[in-house]
Amino acid sequence: MLIAGFPAGSFQTNCYVVAPAAGEECVIVDPGQNAVGDLDDVLREHRLKPVAVLVTHGHIDHMWSVAPVCGARDVPAWIHPEDRDLLSDPGKGLSLATRQQLFGGLAFSEPDDVRELADGEVLRLAGMELTVDHTPGHTRGSVTFRLPSTEEIPDVLFSGDLLFAGSIGRTDLPGGDYPTILRSLATKCLPLPEDTVVLPGHGPQTTIGHERATNPYLAEAAPYAGPTRGI
């Protein structure tokens, strides 16, 4: 398994490239602001051919380069329907002050091919199987992507802005809701194996076991799982 990542743009949003191995097809997760140059370098270095762009949610720092990447590579973008409108109008997911600051003269549009994600769906792309979990709370259409373990690596969770090392995503922007994100954490993160590697939308990687033991938000989320949370 090959997973390469880099922080893109002024938001330092982690963009990931995922493939079975070098020289294979790959998927791209969350190409954010000014991601195209670094992304091209990663694809060239590992001789990878993109087949899809996956978007954890519609905030501008995660989707800024989706349309140009999809257009240049002629690949589809996958996003949850609750966040699809943010591809062409990302200002809907921001505060008024932030919209006024960011969008002077900027225009966004959907890629030609947009496909909608569903909770529990298994995407079979580039010779891999990625499980989609709908995890609202940061936005209405936030999702995570899970890769099953192999002989080389444990389970991997691309958590977007649901879960960070030591923290969680903000809930004060349009579409955010604090009890909802706690419920998503409880039902989609807490049941995962402790050695699951978490690759978040910002900051360093972590594991579910470390976050379960140290992250105060996961402790707060535990009651939302109910008696069958499986931990």
Automatic annotation (TrEMBL):
This is MBL fold metallo-hydrolase. It comes from Streptosporangium minutum. PANTHER family: HYDROXYACYLGLUTATHIONE HYDROLASE GLOC. GO terms for molecular function: hydrolase activity; metal ion binding. Its cofactor is Zn(2+). Gene3D superfamilies: Ribonuclease Z/Hydroxyacylglutathione hydrolase-like. Keywords: Hydrolase, Metal-binding, Zinc. The keyword Zinc applies. The keyword NAD does not apply. Residues 12-202 form the Metallo-beta-lactamase domain. It comes from the Bacteria. InterPro entries: MBL_Glyoxalase_II, Metallo-B-lactamas, RibonucZ/Hydroxyglut_hydro. It holds the Pfam family Lactamase_B.
